[in-house]
Structure formats: C-alpha cells, structure tokens
Amino acid sequence: MLRIEVHTPVSDQADPIETAIREHHIKAADVHSAEIVHRSLDARAKRAPRYDWQIDLELENEAFYLKKLKARHTEPYHYQVPEAGSEVLETRPVIAGFGPAGMAAAYLLAAKGYRPIVVERGPAIEDRKAAVDSYWKTGVLDPERNVQFGEGGAGAFSDGKLTTRVKDPRVRLILTELVKAGADPSIMWMNHPHIGTDALCGIDENLRKAIERMGGEVRFMTKLEQIVTDHGSLKEVKLSDGSVLPCRMLILAIGHSARDTFRMLAECGVPMEAKQFAVGFRAEHLQSFINARQYRSIPEGTVLPAAEYHLSHTSSLGKGVYSFCMCPGGYVVAAASEKDTVVVNGMSYAARDGRNANSALVIQTDASDFGKGLMAGVEFQERMEHLAFEMGNGKAPCETIAHYLDPSAGNEISDVLPTYPLGVKMLDLHPLLNERMNQSLAEMLVHTEKIFPGFTKNGALFTGVETRTSSPVRILRNLSTMESEVAGLYPCGEGAGYSGGIVSSAIDGVKAAEQIIARFAPPEGLE
Ligand code: FAD
C-alpha cells in the first residue's frame, strides 16, 4: 500500500481521492482501493488556506508507482485481539464505571463472549441529560446524576475531542467503533477530530445497546461500594442496591471524580499513591478574535472551522502552565459532582458555532502545593471548589484576564459574555490559588501576550475553578499485566491515573479487557 499526499484549496468541493489520482497521473484502472487517512488545515501561511490530505492506495504495479510518485510505503491497519486463554473464569467479569474506559472494556469483552456486568453509579444518558439540564437551569445538583457521573462518563458532556498523543493501533479501533455507533466518518481522518456533545450522547447509547446485544449487562444507578478480598484475591463486590456479586475479575474504570470510591479503595487496602495534577481557570475569548489570530489570510467567502490554540510555558519557579481542553465555539459548563462547590469545564456542539472560544489555563501542582498524604490532592481540590462556591455565592467567580494581571484594569464584563450557565460574579480570583501558582500563571500570561497579542485583553475572561483535569491519585498496577496487587483487580482509565482524555482512556479499557481475554476462556453457563 502506498501513501500519497495532495493539497486542495479549502473551498474545493471535489473528491480529494479523485484529485490525488488525477494530479499524480495514476491510471484509474490501476487503483484497487483508496482511502483518506489524514487531513490537516494549513491556514497560517500567507497563501490561501488549504487542506493537506494523505491518501492510502492499493495499486497494481506498486513498485512502479513507488518510484514514480516518490510515495511512502505503508502497512494496512491491523488490530488483533489476543487469543482467549485457558484459565477458567469462575464469575462473569465486572466493570465499575461506564465512561470511555469502562465502555471500551465492556464492548471488547462482550464482543468476545465474556458477558461482562457493568455497574455505573449514574443514570442512562436520557435521564442524565435531564438532570444536567435541570442543574444548569436551577443550580440544584444531583450528586449521582451530573457531568461526571452516568452513561458515557466525563466524556459525555464534552467537546468530544478525539485527539490523543498516544501512538497505538487501537486508536483506529476506537475511531472505527465510534463511526459504527454513529459518529461522522470524517473522525477517521481529521487532524483534530471531534464529535460534539450533541452527537456523543446518542453514540454512547448505541454503544451500550451493542454491548447488551452481545450478552453484556449494564446496571445504572448502581455504585460499587466495597470490594471483598480473600487472601489478597478479589472475592466479591458490594453494590449500592444492597446486592453482593461474586467477582474474581473487576475492571475499575471509575474516572477522576469518584472521591468516595478512592477513599473506599484506600480503606480496603488497594495500593494507591498521590499524583500530580493541574488546576486553574477557564479562559474565554471571542471566537472571532481567535480565528483572526490563527488564520492569517482568509479569502472572502471561505468558511473555515472555528480555530484552536495550544499554549504552554514553564514559569521561573519551574511550574508548567498550559492550555487544556480547548473548546472552539464552545461553552463553559458547570461540572461539579458535589454539593456547594463550583467546578468549571468546557464543551461544544458538533457545529462548534458558539460565539466564544474557551480553554482551561492550568498550573501543574505537586505536594508542595497540596501537602503530603494519599488524599491530600483530593482535599486540595475539594477546598478550592468549596472556596469558589463561597466566593461566588453559588455563582462562578470570574475576572477579566486584564484585571487578574493588573488590578488597575477594568473588571467589568464587556465584549466577551461569560457562558457559564449558572451566572458569574466578578471578583479577584487570586485567593483561589497559592502565591506560586498565581505567579506562574501571571508569567505565562505575560509571555502569551507577546506571542498572541490581545490574548489578555479585549474583555477576555477567567472563570474558576478548573480542578478536574486529571486524577489526584494513581491506583497502582503491574505495568505489564495491569493487575493490582489485589489479584483480580484491574485499575484502568483516567481515574486510575493511566490515561487522559476520551481516546487514551478507551485504549486503556481495551488493554484491560485484552488482559482478561488472554488469561481466561470465555465463561460458560455462568449467571
Ligand atoms: P470517566 O469518563 O470519568 O468515567 C468513569 C465512570 O465511572 C463515570 O461514569 C462514573 O459515574 C463511574 N463511577 C465512578 N465511581 C463509581 C463507582 N463506585 N461505581 C460505579 N460507577 C462509578 N477528553 C477528551 O479527550 N476530549 C474532550 O473534548 C474532553 N472534554 C471534556 C469535557 C468535560 C466537561 C469533562 C468533564 C471532561 C472532558 N474530557 C475530554 C475528559 C474525558 O471526558 C475523560 O478523560 C474521560 O471521560 C475519562 O474516561 P474514564 O472512562 O477513565 O472515566
């Protein structure tokens, strides 16, 4: 198979495969198959913006074309599920959590005949959507039905960005299954693919129905409340509905916000450690401002996707400060899972056509910020979230970035209207961070203003606080078998500290399922 490239003006509606075949003078009769594998937008140069395409072709007389086209040889995509093992599985595998990691693990196990039982503390997506809508309208939070908990996990009310730095053949597996479940096929080749929350919810539901059709079972509003071990091996799990399930294999895919479950696991003696994470604020700008900066020359009438940005800086104190989860044309959301707290995050719809761009600007924290002890990071997050609630009197604390940098600048809302659904209160955000964090963020902003003029001006806002960037703990596991020291327990996904984002969490879920498949034969006759 050969990989060739072609460039097309963004306004060009022609099929890029046909354009590539024509421009590279390939005989149509020689083409056995052709597939777009990548598209990126080049809009920073002075010339008119263009799309750069990569196309894989299976050709007659490949050696001839390899030389003629100066093309790259490439292997066809291949993913192989491991052969089933021979150990006898005495109980159906249980998966706690139905976010990307738990869902991907359940999908693969169900597809291979292992009939997993998923327990998810939150509700199915329709019920969850109603609860989240109600919270965003009334401010009354349901601690089990919210942006963190329920079908689809933390990824459901998101921008649905599918970018990942993980280089793994399973990325394509995940994208392929998402397309089968209803995602737009363009996610297979977009440079920065995204789905949007409106599309994601239906996709999550389709994936669950597929899991059920393949023999899996999903129990909503059912929380894993305790694990019971016998001589260091998992024996059973106790659930919030009062039931006790015999359980020798448990995939723990609980996400980064299940603080009660982290505490329960620590009490049950599951080996864990505190880990670094980042906290900060959501920045909001007019999307038109970001577009103008990122797209140098846009010919009249050309429609380009809402532009993105990525920023990172190391402060003089050695702290990393970076943009995170940028949502072009998106909205700042209320993402709390505990009462009397404020937690912000970002989402967008598939069209990414909101007036504002938002992105978290977060500062790396460590024990020098949150203190020593397994739960010190969790407690640090909790303190920040409660303080934000108190400072904003239930609304989100908000400040113009200009005022954050210089108290003599105005702190009134102007061009950028905040999108946080429960209202904001304009004040000074400094009390939410410690001195080192404030200094590091200020240095990053001063640096950013130099390379991105206007970023800290033009009414740009900060809304706080962004605390749920990654897990504050790691649930330890053997690096090759993925098993905890508690035999039969497989911590995976973002909450366990091994992934960050939808795709990498789903990959970690697939890997956990592979471990079980490689070890055990599919269960027969187990209820
Ligand atoms: P989660 O998705 O957190 O799922 C864990 C699940 O476990 C939850 O459903 C929870 O209810 C359940 N659970 C917890 N405890 C228990 C228990 N005791 N018993 C039973 N069930 C339990 N990432 C991206 O890549 N792109 C984005 O655009 C993006 N945007 C985001 C926007 C928002 C608003 C948020 C909150 C996150 C966003 N993320 C995004 C991050 C992404 O959602 C997470 O990285 C990903 O969902 C982690 O997957 P996971 O399966 O490990 O955990």
From TrEMBL:
It comes from Stecheria intestinalis. This is FAD-dependent protein C-terminal domain-containing protein. Residues 276-469 form the FAD-dependent protein C-terminal domain. Gene3D superfamilies: 3.30.70.2700, FAD/NAD(P)-binding domain.
